[in-house]
Automatic annotation (TrEMBL):
Cross-referenced CDD domains: SAICAR_synt_Ade5
One function term, GO molecular function aspect: ATP binding
Recorded family membership: In the N-terminal section; belongs to the SAICAR synthetase family.
Protein name, UniProt field: Multifunctional protein ADE2
GO cellular component: cytosol
Sequence intervals crossing the membrane: none
Record's keyword terms, sorted: ATP-binding, Ligase, Multifunctional enzyme, Nucleotide-binding, Purine biosynthesis
Amino acid sequence: MLNNESQIIPHRLYYKKLSRETYLRPVCAGIKTSWVRSNNKHTYMSRRCHMVPIEWVTRRVATGSFLRRHPGVNEGYTFTPPKMETFFKDDANHDPQWSEEQLLEAKLMVGDRVVGRLEYDIMARTTVAVFKVLERAWATLDCALIDMKIEFGFDAETNEILVSDTIDSDSWRLWPAGDKRLMKDKQVYRNMGTVTEEGLSQIKRNFQWVADKLDAFMPEPQGLVVVLMGSASDASHAEAIKTHCTKLGVSCHLRVTSAHKGTEETLSIIAQYETCGRPVVFVCVAGRSNGLGPVTCANTCAPVINCPPLKPDSMSRDIWSSLSLPSGMGCGTVLYPEAAAQTAATMLGLTDHVIWAKLLAKQLNLWVGLKLSDKDVAAGNQ
């Protein structure tokens, strides 16, 4: 124990690399966890939590215990959306499955907080979000995440609900290329009729395979947003777009060019980024008569977004140069820097699972914030 807030958690043998990197994945996406930082190769620092005695399981494919509990369902059935289940941690009774109603009626006291409707909803939604983040990451490595479990804790100091678990090959099923015969998880051990040295060696090789794959689990982001502003006077608007891009893990370049006053230079800048070898989205910031967006759109196949820095007294007039476009133009228009950054990130996230994960985490955190706000406001109705 380091202090009242954090604790040292030792990694298990063979999991030290796997656990650290996989725990980082939801953290880097922006999902709230108890992880603080790696301490060394064998330990990491974590917020001290009161643990919720529930395993939260998310399934994409029906297999394993689900088939035994649901006769008639064929192995391989795909759950869309993913199916979430809860199991009470009770070794003596083999961790029985609990329904939503059972969990709520149990009124579990964790620390000084009862697990009620609000807590259940937040943990359930976060469970599925964590699964989707890791599922998409594994898919880029041609490996299917079949199902997984996580656990939660309530921060001992703030009472905040946090993912508080080490996610490793004891937590999930992984089928490379979606082929069950190639499974790389702990199920290999469970399937062993007799434990042998060769069998244990195979499990070790499987776990090492997972650890090696994680070297490519979080690639450097390739997507790029290029903000073209028609004048340096638009810099504050452009900088706000860059700030929001950064929050979403998107690189952003700012350039000044005028389609009216320097058309050749504008086309030259567009050409530079078209050949940079990275997925690019252009965001055009030009007020009054916006020629920058349409000219950019007409001369690139990359996505183009208009985000004019309009002023209240002239908005109803100037907005039309961004909305009313010649035929063959396809650049959309948003009014706020955050919307421009998020629209660009959504486009880049189609091929970048790291950006996609940050967008999903942002949606989750906004949803949680609304739930907490509603709780605070509703409390005044008593």
